[in-house]
Amino acid sequence: MVWIGFPSLFSCEKQANLTFYVIIKVMNYGDYIWDLGGTLLDNYQVSTQAFLATLEQFERTAEPQAVYDALKVSTSTAIAMFAPDIADFRTLYKQEEAKHLQEPVLFEGARAVLAKIVTEGGRNFLVSHRNHLVLDILDKAEITSYFTEVVTSENGFARKPSPDSFLYLIKKYDIKHGLVIGDRQIDIEAGKVSGLDTLLVDGHKSLLEIVT
């Protein structure tokens, strides 16, 4: 029997400072729909560095933690807070971020979790707001082969929390009992509207690992 453990996954007012495991039996689900950044990919620190470097091009500074927290909400939120008057900031930031992501870092155990799901007969899917360059990130992280399909922004679906991308996967692959795993509320909202079970992970302070 194989179990997947997610330490420090849930946060609530009474347990904000506690660390604990939520144990999920792999065979409870046949299909897993993953978010990438902050869930499998430990990218927010890198993205923050890229954002700050882009600000420096315009002789601006910001508190790193404030930028980090804003990026956790969305890139648009961060730009609105720190560079709302710079027309081409998003393009420059994404170029800088791409340089920083040349060597993507996965959360500990992420690759093993994906592999174990496939070994046990399950399927992994990825829904990302990034464009086709996300495929390069997966290749460099050596996890492309674990995904049945990767949905990017170029598929044309509305961004999460819209459930459109999830509903597309559900229909195409006849998903009956799936789990959505992400680090933001928009992942959870999209999953619930799609009729799937959901798991919110706290990528800011926890890692994914296998518990046997």
Protein architecture, described:
The chain contains 8 helices and 8 strands. The chain has 212 residues and is an alpha/beta fold. The strands form 2 sheets. It has a 5-stranded parallel sheet with strand order 5-4-3-6-7, with helices on both faces. Strands 2-1-8 form a 3-stranded antiparallel sheet, covered by helices on one side. The radius of gyration is 17 Å and the shape is globular.
What's the end-to-end separation, in Å? 8 Å
Taking the sheet with the most strands, its summary is:
5 strands, parallel
Listing every helix as H and every strand as E from the N terminus to the C terminus, the arrangement reads EEEHHHHHEHEHEHEE
What proportion of the residues form beta strands (DSSP E)? Answer: 15-25%
Strand order of the largest sheet: 5-4-3-6-7
**Helix share bin:** 25-40%
Shape: globular
Mean pLDDT: 83
Low-confidence stretches: 1-27, 204-212
Number of strands: 8
Number of discrete helical segments:
8
Structural class: alpha/beta
Q: Nearest-angstrom radius of gyration?
A: 17 Å
Protein topology:
Elements lengths: L2 E5 L13 E5 L5 E4 L9 H14 L6 H10 L1 H8 L6 H12 L9 H10 L3 E5 L5 H9 L5 E5 L12 H10 L4 E5 L2 H9 L3 E4 L8 E3 L1
